[in-house]
Amino acid sequence: MSDRLSARFAACRADGRAALVTFVTGGDPSPGGTGAILDALVEGGADIIELGMPFTDPMADGPAIQRANLRALGAGTTTRDLLDIVRGFRDRHPDTPLVLMGYANPMLARGAGWFAREAAAAGADGVICVDIPPEEDEALGPALRAARLHPIRLATPTSDAARLPAVLRGASGFLYYVSVAGITGLQQAAQHSIESAVARLRAATDLPIAVGFGIRSPEQAAAIGRVADGVVVGSAIVDLVGSEGENAPAAVRSFVSALAQACARQEHAA
Amino acid sequence: MTLANSLRTQPDERGHFGQFGGRYVAETLMPLILELERAYRAAKADPAFQAQFDDLLEHYVGRPSPLYFAERLTEALRDSAPAGMGPKVYFKRDELNHTGAHKINNCIGQILLAIRMGKTRIIAETGAGQHGVATATVAARFGLPCTIYMGARDVERQSPNVFRMKLLGAEVRPVESGAKTLKDAMNEALRDWVANVDDTFYIIGTAAGPHPYPELVRDFQSVIGREARTQMLEREGRLPDLLVAAIGGGSNAIGLFHPFLDDTEVAMLGVEAAGHGLDTDQHAASLAGGRPGVLHGNRTYLLQDEDGQISEAHSISAGLDYPGIGPEHSWLHEIGRVRYESATDREALDAFQLLCRTEGIIPALEPSHALAAATRKSREMEQDRIILANLCGRGDKDIFTVADALGVAL
Asked: What is the ipTM of this complex?
């Protein structure tokens, strides 16, 4: 497996801080405009990039990312454009891990094998598929593993003890803890519930644990960073891409740098 | 009794119909649909559940629905058919159900399941509004709060049903995303469900979605085919030669077909909506114009582009305006047990008017598609043959759409 992800988590741990994981939608505001946004994420201090694959029916996403999907598709973004965005990023940033995140249908449209090979060749490190649970792993998992991509699994507040082993079986890269039962970008979970959930997950796996959903401010990111290995921020950045137009890279850079500083100042509990 | 090689034993234990079906949902929902599956298995094995379901179907819905020989329609079709052609046409009259369509059968089953599971809030999606009305109806009957998601465009073209749902105490939330039709309403219902997993039961209206929905919706709707089979044997002493039903998601069709699947002498025809024509991009025929993919929890035939982006469907019938189809139909299509054809908006409108004038029945636009295909088939079938078409809904809700299409100002 590509080890950019584990190397980055290890480096952050050595720094005594959580990794900052940032999400934007590929092709937003346009296929040609995403590269500058990704550069701004890295310049601002993001450790890991989650690049969303736009889809017509993003049923796990809230209004912010729904709009980003519409902007990307409205600008004509194709799967090939997305792979070009990954390739360009990998050329410019050889050490920053990038994972693709999206829905099953665009990943399976030309066959799981095609997608996994192309994504790996372009320089992706892992894949998060929202609507392929462990029960349907064979639709995509074997192809990802064959291409040496990390299949990154999601755990949620509803993943109880009986279910966790199934979620963890075949998972690699990191474990993404979706901290609220809900869609992206809306409410944040209570800090104490996140702390107990992360403790529960730590007891079950050695994978790094990144926490996401509803984290919008540097203060929230710092609080989560004290208990998790990674902090995922998505909708708040995506909103900036939507509102700032041509100034989006600068606005994103400054916001991400505030997030990164908040994560760096903390005393890591682990 | 099912045969050793029966076609009626699908899906497998993981909810797959061949390569179709399955459970393609976000992790948050996965424990819920596993719980739903356990609850459904227990209910299915519980005679008290079945007895309550049957009792409500009889006394609240008005079942069994009649099997009706459409004598004047049969004569009219014989008049225009080649000599000796023109089979007897029967209708399964599910438009006479309480709320005017087959949708209520499934809603009764699912709300009983919801109550059994201790859920206290109901949500549903709706296209034409028939499933929304049926869901609002059972929610009122059992005193549960109910939220219906409906595409904003459908809210406009089906305003009588919107008002019905409100009268029944439901909250109707117009969905402004995407093409503002059934697909988008389903996305929004899924978003609601994932955020309200503890107390909410999602009553899916068609035989699609993640396992076990395609199976349980089919089972609840199979009352249509079981009754029809018995009634036809009583009336004609034999089974029909051809079953015909319209397909959006396909719940009325699978309900009619499933009890007959092992009757090899019975042919079956599912009718997709061809909209402005299969040679345009304005249709809703997922089998004819789509390919397998994953949407709304299941793998099935979908209208989509080469990147897997879902296409917008079009049909004059809001109830057929969906870019997918239930997974069991995809499977029956691939194994060849059921034949699938389509009918255009125009053909459905013609069939709609034909039935009004020959039988005094105003059908919904959905079964008008089935009727159009039955009309076509009748030219190739001899007079001693029998067609059984599912009249799955009545047309009161569609009169404004039809008037508009015919250029009549009301």
From this structure: 0.95
